[in-house]
Task: inverse folding
């Protein structure tokens, strides 16, 4: 019973509010203007029911098209969400593998760089491990600053030259000066 009293009281409150708002002159004139417009529209559609039917059909078609578009978009988004759920572990694994590969490559490059620096430092001093020769880079061969067979073949990336070659003047002056510094 309480539910039916609630509805009745809401309706009575709404009607009371409408009556009280009619005490204002501008509200009364606006409501009368709207009522006249509704009356004129009703008379027009009573005389021209085909126009009313056409407008209703047009609105119905627009709503159907909107619903179909919404439904299509919903299905598309659902399929993309499902696809993303399937790809997420694969992409995550791929990103982790790529990161690991780059970190490993970076570490290898840094290690090789440090090894080369150590080797070049000791080689330029004539203290290369396992030899008493000095390392001469390929640039010295390419520029014709070093005499020897590697210049003719062009295959060397650098070589160790005996200290005697420096003493005997077989390595050109500028390369010799660069090697000793």
Result:
């Amino acid at each position: 019973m309480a539910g039916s009293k609630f509805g009745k009281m809401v309706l009575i409150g709404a009607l009371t509010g409408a009556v009280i708002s009619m005490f204002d002159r501008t509200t009364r004139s606006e409501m009368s203007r709207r009522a006249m417009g509704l009356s004129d529209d009703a008379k027009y559609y009573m005389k021209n029911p085909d126009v009313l039917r056409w407008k209703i059909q047009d609105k119905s078609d627009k709503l159907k098209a909107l619903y179909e578009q919404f439904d299509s978009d919903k299905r598309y988004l659902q399929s993309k969400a499902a696809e993303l759920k399937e790809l997420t572990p694969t992409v995550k694994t791929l990103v982790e593998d790529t990161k690991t590969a780059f970190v490993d490559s970076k570490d290898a490059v840094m290690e090789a760089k440090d090894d080369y620096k150590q080797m070049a430092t000791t080689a330029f001093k004539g203290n290369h491990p396992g030899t008493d020769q000095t390392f001469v880079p390929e640039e010295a061969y390419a520029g014709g600053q070093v005499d020897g067979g590697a210049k003719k073949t062009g295959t060397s990336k650098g070589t160790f030259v005996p200290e005697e070659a420096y003493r005997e003047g077989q390595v050109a002056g500028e390369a010799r000066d660069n090697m000793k510094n």
